[in-house]
Amino acid sequence: MGKAKGKHRLDKYYHLAKEHGYRSRASWKLIQLDSKFHFLHSSRAVLDLCAAPGGWMQVAVERVPVGSLVLGIDLVRIAPIRGAISIEQDITKSECKARIKKIMGENGVKAFDLVLHDGSPNIGGAWAQEAMAQNALVIDSVKLATQFLAPKGNFVTKVFRSQDYNSVLYCLHQLFEKVEVDKPSASRSTSAEIFLVGLKYKAPAKIDPRLLDVKHLFQGTIEPVRKVIDVLRGTKQKRHRDGYEDGESIVRKVSSAADFVWSDTPLEILGSVTSISFEDPTSLPIRDHALTTEEVKTLCDDLRVLGKQDFKHLLKWRMHVRKSLSPTQKASSTTAIDGEEKKHEDEDDKLLNEMEELTCAMERKKKQAKKRDAKRRTKDKARKATGMQIDAMEDGYTDHELFSLSSIKGKKDLVAVDSAENDDENGEVRDSENDDENDEAQEHSSSVIDSDEEQRRYDEQMEEFLDQVYERFVTKKEGSTKQRKRARQAYSKQLLEGDGDDVVIHSDHDSDEDLGDQEANPLVVSLNDGEVPTKEEITSKWFAQGVFAEAAEDGDLEKYDSEAEMQVDRQEEKLAVPEKTAKIAAGLKHNQPETSKTEEDFEIVPAPATDSSDDSSSDDSDNDDVETKAEILAYAKKMLRKKQREQMFDDAYNKYMFDDEGLPSWFVEEEKRHCQPMKPVTKEEIAAIRAQFKEINARPAKKVAEAKAKKKRVAMRKLEKVRKKANTISDQTDISDRSKRKMIEQLYKKATPKRPKKEYVVAKKGVAVKAGKGKVLVDRRMKKDARARGMGKPGKGASKKGKNAKGQKGKGSGKGSAKNGNKGNKGKKMGMHE
Ligand SMILES: C[S@@+](CC[C@H](N)C(=O)[O-])C[C@H]1O[C@@H](n2cnc3c(N)ncnc32)[C@H](O)[C@@H]1O
């Protein structure tokens, strides 16, 4: 069955099979099926149809109870397997039946507990024909199973997911109490094979012969098959796993490529037809499009065998071909669906359309960004040429109103700012673009996706989305709406909040119905549901608290009064979130020491007490410094990303900002202990930064590295010179080889840098000797002791050197060394003193 050849076939299971001594990688399929359905351990007689080379037989022998019969049959000879019998037979012939019966009799087996079938017809040809022959072979194996299977016995067969697949499935449903469909991971995802496991054979007294007649089952003759179905089931047909109804499964349902591409419900089409054709005239441009590859055509040919990747590939192809053939049509087709139609549109289809819109928007934005960049570059050039660059800040020009959000009174102003900004950036781009483009640009003004990073993110999102759509597409067929809902919600959430900073989907509803909001500044967000309490309201609410009654009696009201004022200020301050980012950042460090407050409500954080004079703590403070630096850097790193930065700001609004006073001490204590706000950076992130510091510190100083490199260069040059000289010497003919060698040796000796010689100092009693840099202290006593302890044998050279050293040093090395060297060995205990 269209077997791929070559090295790629030798996958993990091939090697595993080799390792375990199985004759075929197919063994793993049976192992995995058995691990799931546990049919082997209780089978005392197993009939393996189409068993060569015997991989399944080997597994069966391993897993069935000892003494069980495992009978393997194949067209080709199966090499003997210990504990199994094999015969050469065609399972479609009646002779095969007789042979089986004979062997059963010989082994005292009345029926088989398990019939296995992994046959593949040994014919070539078109895929459809092959698949049909395969499934016909399956029915042959079913026939044998009905004759030899014991009641409650099990049956495992391989089928191909072609148009006959559902008929086979149906057939098995009639004969077994339960039918499981499984594709073990050992089965290649590229293969259309799938395994059906019929559990608990019903062993009906009579079986309608048409049920096992491939002509009835597979030939596309709907009526007779339906009759068979009706006779045997007498009930309404159920939907099956793959989403096609039994009766429908044998009919080829075709959709035109044009319908699929231009439809707003592509998933509905994918779920309801068996193939997509390119034959009708409207589909011709699609067929001839460069994007419509042979692969796409093959996928379209049989939609029932689509795997996940195929499914995604097909949807992506549709999206691109749609965009390429008619970008405008696409946009209108997705937006022009009237309300009624939209209701009926599948949710996934809607999401798919949104995704497509995003793709278009992204590409549009990319184009615009490119144009903008080009314009900006030319403008800059022109400016430079005329020397017109003016630094506004240099002139001391600052207009505070310019940066005040409160000056933006409504959406209109905002749009004005927005467009002004665009004008500023675009220069004359806008003038040159037509009105339509301008409208689009405004519509998607917040969905600017122009960097590679964003593109990557978008691609990931798209992949994820398609995965979800596929999962839902598959589960939908089983009627699982819950999962679909969940995934959809997750996706919408992602769209709205995940990357919402870049991609905003505008709903028409927004602009039309929220007219009442027009006068409010949309950037200034109320944290109080739009209702801003007045200063008086807040004050009175504050004083309404019970505690003030007591305080009034104690005459403490003055203090509370100022506190209330502060609360009011803070409330007001909350209303203009973006203007307070500096303070928010300060709020990140929650466990600040006491803060003092000024009338302008600045919070002055006292610097932590440090004592630079304290030397012992300098190490600690160094460590603290590194720790703090690492932490700050980790924050900074996070703040580089817009989304994370805003998240940090948002998180920084917490109760610690208010530094409540007058709380019961036990409460404060417990809060301190248990209520620690989460830092926006993790320990690991800080550790990573510290590791970076370490790495930087570990690098040699630039000067040292340079000096080393220079030294190396000089040495190399020297050696190069020597090499040349050596060559000239060796080329000379009038000198003997021996002298040549000597001369060359000398040359190299001179050139190689000499290591400073070690100086050996012999320790002598009563003479002080300093064994500093380059000096080695040699002490006879020490040597002897070491030798006595068996710690090592001083080499000849060492003693010789020692002697030399002694000779060199002569008297001078004298007595004091005994003090030095022998001190430890004076060892009264040992009594070894010299
Ligand atoms: C994929 S192999 C089976 C592998 C086997 N399960 C194993 O684990 O080694 C398919 C086998 O079906 C056999 N086959 C095809 N048609 C057959 C038939 N009519 N009768 C018997 N064997 C047949 C082929 O000869 C081939 O060996």
TrEMBL record:
Root EC class: transferase
Pfam families, alphabetized: DUF3381 (PF11861), FtsJ (PF01728), Spb1_C (PF07780)
Bias (Basic residues): 364-384, 715-726, 798-809, 825-834
Annotated Basic and acidic residues bias: 339-350, 557-582, 776-788
Active-site residues from the entry: 158
Residue stretches making up the Ribosomal RNA methyltransferase FtsJ domain: 22-201
Stretches assigned to coiled coil: none
Domain Ribosomal RNA methyltransferase SPB1-like C-terminal per the UniProt entry, residue ranges: 596-790
Keywords: Methyltransferase, Nucleus, Ribosome biogenesis, rRNA processing, S-adenosyl-L-methionine, Transferase
EC number: 2.1.1.-
Subcellular location per the Swiss-Prot or TrEMBL entry: Nucleus, Nucleolus
Record-listed S-adenosyl-L-methionine binding positions: 54, 56, 74, 90, 118
Catalytic activity: a ribonucleotide in rRNA + S-adenosyl-L-methionine = a 2'-O-methylribonucleotide in rRNA + S-adenosyl-L-homocysteine + H(+)
Signal peptide: none
Biased composition (Acidic residues): 612-625
Disordered, as annotated region: 325-350, 364-387, 418-462, 476-520, 554-627, 715-739, 772-834
DUF3381 domain mapped to chain residues: 235-383
Database matches in HAMAP family: RNA_methyltr_E (MF_01547), RNA_methyltr_E_SPB1 (MF_03163)
Function: Probable methyltransferase involved in the maturation of rRNA and in the biogenesis of ribosomal subunits.
Family of the protein in this entry: Belongs to the class I-like SAM-binding methyltransferase superfamily. RNA methyltransferase RlmE family. SPB1 subfamily.
Protein name per Swiss-Prot or TrEMBL: Putative rRNA methyltransferase
Organism: Hevea brasiliensis (Para rubber tree)
